[in-house]
Amino acid sequence: MGEQSQNRGTISESNEDSLGQDSPAIPIPGNLPILPLRGLVVYPQTAVPLTIGQPRSIKLVDDVVIGEKLIGLVTAKNPELENPGPEDLYSVGTVAIVHRMFRAPDGTIRLLVQGISRFRLGEFTQIEPYLRANITVSPETIEEGLEIEALARNAREQFIHIAEMIPSFPREIIAGINSIEDPLQTVYTIANFQRMDLAEAQALLEIDSVTEKLHKLVAILARESEVLELGQKIQNEARSEIEKMQREYFLREQLKAIQKELGEGDEQAADIEEFRRKIETSGMSEEAEKQARRELERLSRLPTAAAEYGVIRTYLDWLVSLPWNKATEDNLDIAHARAVLNEDHYGLEDVKERILEFLAVRKLRLERQEGTSEQSLPRDRIRREREGVILCFVGPPGVGKTSLGQSIARALGRKFIRISLGGVRDEAEIRGHRRTYIGAMPGRILQALRRVESRNPVFMMDEIDKLGYDFRGDPSSALLEVLDPEQNYDFRDNYLEVGFDLSQVMFITTANQLETIPPPLLDRMEVIRISGYTEREKLEIARHYLIPRQLLENGLQAGEVHFTDEAILTIIRSYTREAGVRNLEREIGAVCRKIATRIAEKGETPTEITETLVREFLGRPKYLGSEEVSIRTSQPGVATGLAWTPVGGDILFIEATRMPGGKGFTVTGSIGNVMQESARAALSLVRSRSEHYNIPANFFENSDIHVHVPAGAQPKDGPSAGVAIVTALVSLLTNRPVKSDVGMTGEITLRGQVLPVGGIKEKILAAHRAGLKKVILPKFNEADLDDIPDEIRQAMQFVLVDQIDEVLDHALEPAPVEQDSTPASIEKSPSPKKSRKRKAAADEGNAG
Q1: Element spanning 526, H or E
Q2: Could you confirm whether 774 is annotated as catalytic?
Q3: Whose CA is closest to 195, among 3, 8, 4, 6?
Q4: Neighbours of 751 (CB within 10 A)
Q5: Other C-beta atoms within 10 Å of 834: how many?
Q6: Staple 709 to which of 89, 228, 663, 669, CB 3.0 to 4.6 Å?
Q7: Other C-beta atoms within 10 Å of 45: how many?
Q8: How far apart (Å, rounded) are the C-alpha atoms in residues 842 and 365?
Q9: pLDDT < 50: residue spans in the chain
Q10: Which run of H or E residues covers position 509?
Q11: HEC states along 107-169?
């Protein structure tokens, strides 16, 4: 077993004289017992204590001490190896003499050995009971000159510097090393006390040149010095930080004592007293007050330096700053509210009537409760009589949903707050975070109420149809409690953990479509649809709202520029096609900027903006209006349908064509499954009634039909295009064009019945914007015509149908007197055996 040293570098009194002195000349035999060492390299001219515990090593020592006391010390390559053999040892070792031996009570032997000379291992002559080998003494090459003296001095100085950075290092050893002059003894003495890797220590022993030994030793010492200096720097920084904290603590304590002597309260006591006063005057609920006093008691027992002190203080700050009893008084003057709503918005009668109804009910309820003390009523009755209004404005962009909320707040005399829910995916945005999280805060609901400082504001939640959900939760589910007057009187935020009454808040949500709102959430809201504006309404809005605002924003004075009605209508018809007025305002702003540029550059001020100037300023028209419909439907096979989209109604062209083939039917245009099924149902209906429509019964045998819905980049779906697809197919196969001023909508059945569809008002407004004069509607949608403005009812004709034949009678041009023969490009080669097919092909006429 290789033996290890204990307390390396410790020198007994008996051999202190050997340090720094040459060893006496002792004859070294050519064959020596070899003692393997584990994790230790013994150098010549150094004294090292060893502990022997293996039986074979004890046997070796017993034989050596009764003889010449010389032993060969060789380091094992692997310190973990229990019984290293000849192949496990390095080839260079140190001849040592045993000075002292002591047998310990535990059976081990303690030795003090001193290295004499370096040797190289030869052939092993004995393996058992211990190792013996032939050796060759290998003395070092000692150079002379200034370089070796400088290296030795540098090594001593660096070692002394390292020793001074280690407080426990014996000072007498430093003095002894400083007195050494021999370069070789300097190397070995310093290496004996310097900590280094086993491989480096062995390499230092194996180097023959003393100069090279010194170079390597200096490099090792320089690296060790840098490591120790860095360690001291880190330790000093940590110590200084601790001292700084202790100093601040003592200073704070001294400051407290000084303030106490001066009769001044400390900051913590002032905070606690301030919180206690705010809790008493905040008017919070009994539960919240109990929770606040409990947390305040905890805060008073904590030092200000504690980490939890800031958490509790922030929590109390949120509790006392919420508007528990702060509310604005409603202005219940209905005439005033009507005037404010009419001043801010043109039209939107449904919304205005609903707000006036709310005011009337609230006014009547307050008048009838006058003289009745609320405290005398049962708690559940008080809660039931509180009225919470949850409205949902649904309509295309640009119709004024968000600005309508501000007008409602102004009409009621309430404060207004708005948050956007678009893209919110975390439930904690609504309910808040638990206080256990770092940086926890209440949800957006309570944050908004704290900012507005009122418990009964008009609270608008924009884009509720664009909520998302992921692994963090479903914010739409968290809104179920907020938007329910039967639950929100005791809304509990995860951060506050106490109930807050939201029943006095007037919640208004906005959306472009209802399909993406979860049904349970939609069921809690009163939906008010805001459709697009008519041409006349846009004219009035532009005249009273948009033009004055754009004049102001572009540096023009009111009355300096006047837009004629024809100019405004030109912008509406030729440069915008939208349900709202957002793009209309942009175009008016563009005209105002052109005017401002002309004034700034030339000093000219056109006082009247006419249709001609509008076209000059805005350039080529972006939309053709009714001309586009006339061009698209000039050929058979194209029908004008009406569609509903989240941004308002729009017209939809259905194109059908025919080509040589056999029973092929293709539908394209980025359409969904429902619309594809409507197209197949339409084809089946046309085939089943081909004889009634004077279409050859075998037209599908020798033809392929392709139905296309242009604007293929926009997804389209739904059953309402069924009648338009049938009309396009019949128009194609009978060579009868569709009337250019007719639009249609309705679902079709295989029996030819026209079923009702939704979005009638938006579709009719889109037809009016496109310049259509007649709209074909399902008869079951007759009640929807009550929502159509009078100006559109007077300008358009509505045809109510319940069968497809009625649609075709009103939509198609009269049949031509003579039909052209089928072009050769779509004819099938006639069979000599079936002349009837030739006649059928000739009767088909036009093929699109």
Answers
A1: strand 526-529
A2: no
A3: 8
A4: 9
A5: 10
A6: 669
A7: 24
A8: 79
A9: 1, 4-24, 264, 374-377, 379-384, 818-848
A10: strand 506-511
A11: CCEEEEEEEEEEEEEEEEEECCCCEEEEEEECCCECCCCHHHHHHHHHHHHHHHHHHHCCCCC
Q: Could you check whether the bond before residue 129 is cis, i.e. omega within 30 degrees of 0?
A: yes
The one catalytic residue among 531, 574, 678, 720: 720
Q: Which helix (H) or strand (E) holds 723?
A: helix 722-734
CATH number at residue 495: 3.40.50.300
Nearest one of 439, 414, 432, 441 to 482, comparing CA atoms: 432
Quick check: 518 and 401 in contact, CB under 8 A?
no
Kindly state the greatest CA–CA separation across the chain.
142
**Residue 51 burial (CB count, 10 A):** 15
Whether residue 505 is found in the same domain as residue 466: yes
Range of the domain at 520: 334-371+385-529
Other Cβ atoms within 10 Å of 589 Cβ, number = 17
State the Cα–Cα distance between residues 273 and 363, nearest whole angstrom.
42
Q: Which two tokens stand for residue 610?
A: 């006419």
Residue 642 and residue 613 share a domain: no
pTM value surpassing 0.85: no
What CATH number corresponds to the domain at position 575? 1.10.8.60
Is the same domain home to 317 and 340?
no
| Residues 516, 596 share a domain | no
CATH assignment of the domain containing 756: 3.30.230.10
Instruction: Give the amino acid at 803.
Output: Q
Whether residue 801 sits in one domain with residue 655: yes
End-to-end Cα distance, the chain: 104
21-75 confidence digits (pLDDT tens): 444 467 888 888 988 988 889 999 888 898 888 888 888 888 888 888 899 999 9
Say how far apart CA 400 and CA 508 lie, in whole Å.
13
Neighbours of 147 (CB within 10 A): 12
- Structural contact between residues 807 and 776, judged by C-beta atoms closer than 8 angstroms: yes
Q: What is the CATH number of the domain that holds 20?
A: 2.30.130.40
Q: What are phi and psi of 799, to 5 degrees?
A: -110, 120
Residue 611 near residue 570 (C-beta atoms within 8 A):
yes
Same domain, 277 and 169: no
Amino acid in position 292? A
The tens digit of pLDDT for each residue in 797-848 reads 999 999 999 999 999 988 765 444 333 333 333 333 333 333 333 333 322 2
Assess whether 431 and 493 both reside in one domain.
yes
For residues 722 and 584, membership in a common domain is answered with no
Considering the domain boundaries, does residue 250 fall inside one?
no
Residue written as token pair 């007008």: 407
Is 840 within the bounds of a domain? no
What is the spatial distance between Cα 722 and Cα 749, in angstroms, rounded to a whole number? 8
Tokens of 225: 């010095």
Catalytic residue among 594, 716, 739, 763: 763
The residue among 588, 618, 648 that closes a domain is 618
Quick one: which H or E segment has residue 275?
Answer: helix 267-281
For 347-393, the pLDDT digits (tens) are: 778 788 888 888 888 888 877 766 555 444 454 444 445 566 788 98
Compute the distance between CA of residue 702 and CA of residue 698 in angstroms, rounded to an integer: 7
Instruction: Give the separation between CA 202 and CA 74, rounded to whole angstroms.
Output: 10
Tokens of 780: 């079951």
Q: Is 92 within a domain?
A: yes
Q: Respond yes or no: is residue 634 known to be catalytic.
A: no
833 part of a folded domain: no
Among 529, 549, 574, residue at a domain's last position? 529
The number of distinct structural domains making up the chain is 5
